[in-house]
Amino acid sequence: MGYFQVPKVRSKIFKFFTALLSSLHYATQILKYKYLKNIFVQKDYFFSFLKNINQTNTLVLYANKINIAK
Hints:
Helix content is 81%, strand content 0%.
């Protein structure tokens, strides 16, 4: 449990989970608008969801770089 008391680790975990939660938020938006006739609305939500997943991956890669740099 002492591992989670380190501020750097805690902030990394927090950043990762906030990115994950926002990705889930976009996923729910896609499901919400799934039955709409307007294709552009669906596409817009889908692309923002993909962009968010990409941000999450970037965060993970960044965290790995920090660990390697140590």
